[in-house]
Amino acid sequence: MKRIDFEHFNVYTSVSRKVARPMDVRETFADMIYNNVNGIKAHALALKIYENKGAVEYTDEEVQLIRTVAEQLCVPGFIDGLNEQIGNNNKTE
Description:
Elements (H helix, E strand, L loop, with lengths): L1 E4 L3 E4 L7 E4 L2 H11 L3 H12 L3 E4 L1 H14 L2 H13 L5
Antiparallel strand pairs: 1-4, 2-3
């Protein structure tokens, strides 16, 4: 499991990743899942992202879906912010 904080999320503004814009991306990213991914699991994940505050634990399956959506629909600055959170986050047992 990984913790991701979509409420306090860095979106990088340049390829150097020296400057990031902290943003609340919960609604925007949840809408991407809600409008572009089929299935009840996607629906549940979209609601989980939208309704929660702060860092939230996501299963490996949810993280894979989040990564897939980000890689297909998001700008590189968002993807780098996501990778930063996933890579620097604690893994829970």
